[in-house]
Amino acid sequence: MYTQSMDIPGQQPRAVAAAEQGAQEQEFEARIAADRKVEPRDWMPEAYRRTLVRQISQHAHSEVVGMLPEGNWLTRAPTLKRKAILMAKVQDEGGHGLYLYAAAETLGVSRDTLLDQLHSGKAKYSSIFNYPTVSWADIGAIGWLVDGAAIMNQIPLCRCSYGPYARAMIRVCKEESFHQRQGYEIMLALANGTPAQKRMAQDALDRWWWPVLAMFGPHDSDSQHSGQSMRWGIKRVSNDDLRQKFVDATVPQAELLGLTLPDPLLKWNAQRGHYDFGPIDWDDFWKVVNGDGPCNRERLATRVRAHAEGAWVREAAMAHAEKQRRKAHQEAA
Ligand code: BYC
Fold first, then answer.
1. Whether pTM exceeds 0.90
2. Model confidence over 115-138: pLDDT tens digits?
3. How remote is the CA of residue 62 from the centroid of ligand 1, in Å?
4. Which amino acids bring their CB within 6 angstroms of ligand 1?
5. CA distance 311 to 313
6. Contact in structure between 295 and 131 (CB atoms under 8 Å)
């Protein structure tokens, strides 16, 4: 009786499909356990795919929106050399966005869909790019601190279990390293400059420090995705551990600049072997994440306008590609 019931049309394929999926799941788990990369054509659980699309697309959006605060200073960089360096850096961020959108596309989502999500305000991007750049020292602070935080977060992502994301991160990290150094060098020049320049550097540090610490994301206890992402080998180090690593690395850098980190509770804790630091204003963080920061509306409006104004470039590129395709076809015939 039981064996007969397995012959009912439609039931057997389902049973076979379930067995097949079980085997695929086992293979996926074994791959993760053995620390082998998952590649686009490999079977993966839907939730793993969705998590990657979420994280990689947010990351891509952060890179392209991240061009805006610094882009604000391209026309006002103090020297030709500084302007050339800043232009190269901002272009690099655009390039990072492109590698990351391409990595997301390997998961079966189109770039148009992702851009629609960004432009309609549905998608998140890093909180840090919703703060204004009011002085040249902000460009130094972004390079030193924001790119410094980005490296801290992205080095472990070079070991992410998803191959295309991990490989994109290797190149991104090399470029971020140059970005961090150029920012620190701007801060060094200002900190060793006139008293007014040093004050400008300190003011930028005062404004960027806390948003940069928040940029690592909520405390581990409030981080809804961390547990699963760590089990899947997407995230390798937790939000709080990365934040701590960043603070420990940055304190001596600030000392070398002769600048003061704006935290009266910052203190070396010999027992822990780390710096203790004060509480982060999470209400402010969530306000910014949810669209109500100082520059959210301006950033999104600029992004949407840039996309609309670039329509002719995309159309021209498509027309050119089509012309090349037809030419190749004719030559082959
Ligand atoms: N801003 O469970 P959690 C750059 C969201 S680009 C906004 O911990 P997860 C650079 C989070 O998305 C820097 N939202 O999440 C570019 C989640 O919301 P959803 C960008 C944030 O994913 C140009 C919720 O909070 N880097 O460096 O496990 C110039 C709960 O969080 C933020 C990356 O994107 C935030 N700061 O961990 C210069 C790196 N933090 O999705 C520099 C890749 C958290 O449920 N991403 N949220 O709606 C990651 O490593 C992780 O996604 C995060 C968050 C650590 C950011």
1. yes
2. 999 999 999 999 999 999 999 999
3. 9
4. 54-55, 58-59, 62-63, 66, 93, 124, 126-127, 146-147, 150, 153, 215, 217-218, 223-226, 229, 235, 239, 289
5. 5
6. yes
